[in-house]
Amino acid sequence: MSEELKKGLEGVLVAESSLSYIGGDDGRLVYCGYSIDDLARNASFEEVVYLLWHGELPTAEELSAFEEAMAEERQLDEGVYRLIEDLAAADENPMAALRTIVSTLSAYDPDADADPTDVDANVRKGRRITAKIPTALAAFARLRDGEDPVEPRTDLGHASNFLYMLNGEVPDEVLAETFDMALVLHADHGVNASTFSARVTSSTLADLHAAVTSAIGTLSGSLHGGANQDVMEMLKEVDDSDKDPLQWAVDAIDEGRRVPGFGHRVYSVKDPRATILSEQSKALGEAGDMKWYEYSTTLEEHLTDEKGLAPNVDFYSASTYYQMGIPVDIYTPIFAMSRVGGWIAHVLEQYDDNRLIRPRSRYAGPADRTVTPIEER
After folding, report:
1. Which of 335, 288, 342, 343 is nearest to 314 (CA)?
2. Residues tagged active-site
3. Given pLDDT bands bounded at 50, 70 and 90, which one contains residue 23?
4. How far apart are CA 128 and CA 133, in angstroms?
5. How far apart are CA 313 and CA 264, in angstroms?
């Protein structure tokens, strides 16, 4: 057994997966054999979730049945709504609220007592969790702002329905397609921290709700899921300053500030998801206000030229979401709303060929100590 210490498990293979491939040196992301660019431009979020859960893209008939089944699960039980009201009244952090809500969904799930490895039950539970998170998140956001929740509709797609529940009006085609594309881009990304957390939890044969709740808790950390919010707050700081974006970037670097949204643990080049989202940010800017896109491109050019840093997916998702009217502090919950499709796929994969995940640590504490009687200490 190797005694080599790998902090953060960097470079350590912990699983074999058929779900996503990341080419860190050439900026590639692949889901089940399909490039992310191809999927983002030609497949809906529902199609991608089906792909991740079943390994193949659906036929038209399969997609229709899947979309209908998902739409029918959007409603929340009254007990869940009461919980959301309490969390909103307490002004709970949105990610903490989402973590609590998803855990509570288990109490109302008809398959809650199924064997954790029952594939059919897990697909049904996964469908319910995936369908209900947007309803819960939109309700929380509205209640917190003193507005009544908007009931979900079954005649809208997953992305359109969320924007409808959040804003109270059906989004136009551009907004709906842009948001759907963003969900596709965030659906899976290898064994990242939150996905690993879900796999560790499910490896104990804990159930799907426990695994997803664990993943949400992991995603809430600022080193994993909070960067897109940090990016938008930075862009707003640039806008509020009396400096042009380039000077702001120069001064920030001189001050030793870390500019969020740059660099990635896996990619050594520009994140392919950032490339796609930058196009969407520009398109939204052309229909509204270009300044957020222009701030972003100025910062990107400077950080790339001066520091050799490339933007990750969080960098352009920030301005994209902001131009869609999405509150900044629910950016990370929206990340979870998408990534839940990948988490569930990884849990299904873990259950299918399970082994308890139990790494070791190297002991570095004192040795050969003896207990001094309490009266002598």
Report:
1. 335
2. 224, 264, 314
3. very high
4. 9
5. 9
Locate 250 and state its tokens.
């120069």
- Pairwise pLDDT comparison (230 vs 163), residue with the higher score: 163
Give the DSSP H/E element, type plus range, for residue 262: none
The domains found in the chain, sorted by start residue, are 28-224+329-352 (1.10.580.10), 227-323 (1.10.230.10)
Judging by beta carbons within 10 Å of its beta carbon (0-12, 13-18, 19+), is residue 7 exposed, middle or buried?
exposed
As given in the structure block, the two tokens for residue 220 are 């809430």
Distance CA 199, CA 210 (A): 11
Spatial distance between the Cα atoms of 272 and 189, rounded to a whole number of angstroms: 12
Model confidence over 277-305: pLDDT tens digits?
Answer: 999 999 999 988 999 999 999 999 988 98
For residue 29, what pLDDT band results from cuts at 50, 70 and 90? very high
- Give me the DSSP letters along 259-285: PTTB--SS-SS--HHHHHHHHHHHHHH
Q: Provide the b/e sequence for 323-343 (b: ≥16 CB within 10 Å).
A: bbebbbbbbbbbbbbbbbbbb
What is the pLDDT of the chain when averaged over all its residues?
A: 94
